[in-house]
Amino acid sequence: MYDPNSDPRNLPNTAFTARGGSPLDSLPLATDLEADLVVVGGGVTGCSAALHAAEGGARVVLLEANAIGWGATGRNAGHVAPASKLSLEEAVTRYGPVHGRRFNDACEAGPDLVFGLIERHGIEAELKRGGVIVAAHSQAAVEELRHRVEVMRAEGKPAHWFDREEAARRTGSPLYRGATWAKRGGAINPLAYARGMARAATARGARVFEHSRAEGIVRQGRAWRVSTASGSVTAPKVIIATNAHTDGLWSGLRRSIVPARSYHFVTEPLPDELARTVLPGAAVMTDRRRLLIGLRLTADNRIHFNGYGPINGPDTGSDIARTVARLEEIFPQLRPVKLDMSAAWSGWMAMSAAGTWKLHRLADGVTAALGCNGRGVAMGSFFGRDLALHALGTPEADLTIPFERLLKIPFYPLAALIARFELARRDRLDKAEMEALRRDNAARTGPGA
Ligand SMILES: Cc1cc2nc3c(=O)[nH]c(=O)nc-3n(C[C@H](O)[C@H](O)[C@H](O)COP(=O)(O)OP(=O)(O)OC[C@H]3O[C@@H](n4cnc5c(N)ncnc54)[C@H](O)[C@@H]3O)c2cc1C
Predict the structure, then answer these.
(1) Pocket around ligand 1: residues whose beta carbon is below 6 Å from it?
(2) pTM for the full model?
């Protein structure tokens, strides 16, 4: 299977690099250090862990193989979703009655954590509130989303359902059968956010080393010695926060997830008048198609959105014609859509068998959080904090989700192939539902409309 760590060492040009703040430009580790905690991985999860542990008074060392934000964190769409991918019933089945509810509550509160960190540490991360819209393309999606709204309302939580007309007004798209709006969510510049957290951590005494891949972890008395090519850190606690970029550092960890590539694009800047018609009622939107669609309007009037492409292997480019057709179908007023190909990029998500995050205690003092499944700006911040608090003494019972056994995915060498088949199956289902939607919309608006 292609190793995501084989991607080029430089962060690609994305919708966020221009306003992502300056890189940390930290030197590689070149000595032997002692610390209370070593964090491996400088994405949102590792930076949150380092920041929270440093705030709690720990001596922290963060090791990043490339640069802060080089992984999914510096390439994601910056949607800060206030909702779990799992329904409450699914979360309870997955994590048990106490932790399942806690997990979904944490997902709903995720944006408060992210926005709170940005505000508390004065991070310039283009924070945009305004909520997240999830649009329904099929009747099944209508029923599922309405059910979620009802469950949330019954618990006294804020949740909104928009009928077809209101959904069209709020999204600027005539396509959908309805939509939910989760007011607590929003959007950020994820690269600026991670760099800001790393800087806030260093201001509290954490030491950040870039271009410092952790190559080995060995027991040394009651502590762990984490070694890089040119140095080492010895500490009683280690947090591994490497998600889709998990390498062979800890035996079996890489085999517990399947990395999947996701492609992103921005359009050329839109004239103000046209930009005002796109998503006037929220900061970001997605719909319930199985193959992710995510959309937002950037500060400079571009639409940033997901594209189609091969989920494994080197980045050989995506299916641009299909990607553009999808955007034009959502917003026909933008035809013909013009992409800015100087900012077209891809990144890696860690898919897990259960379709959601996992926490592991790999050994006494060594923990890991991974399996973002495409949702990690808020949850990575959350689980980074959870693991930091655990390293500082918070008992497992008080964490959002419990630690689970490390399970290797069976037939791993075939996992990429199986994932491709699964993707093709989902694509077929999406296509059939979109056909039904088109027929339904044509019948409503009349022939030729
Ligand atoms: C294209 C794309 C779009 C997405 N959009 C969204 C979105 O809009 N909203 C959302 O919530 N989520 C989104 N996600 C998911 C989100 O980006 C991730 O869940 C999140 O960034 C994961 O952060 P992380 O810190 O756990 O991992 P990463 O950001 O991937 O960081 C892992 C880091 O570990 C480092 N590393 C690996 N091995 C070692 C080692 N041995 N030693 C030292 N360092 C090592 C890597 O270099 C890497 O920098 C998206 C993901 C992608 C790929």
Answers:
(1) 40-46, 63-66, 70-73, 75-79, 81, 213-214, 241-245, 247, 249, 262, 264, 294, 347-349, 372, 374-378, 380
(2) 0.96
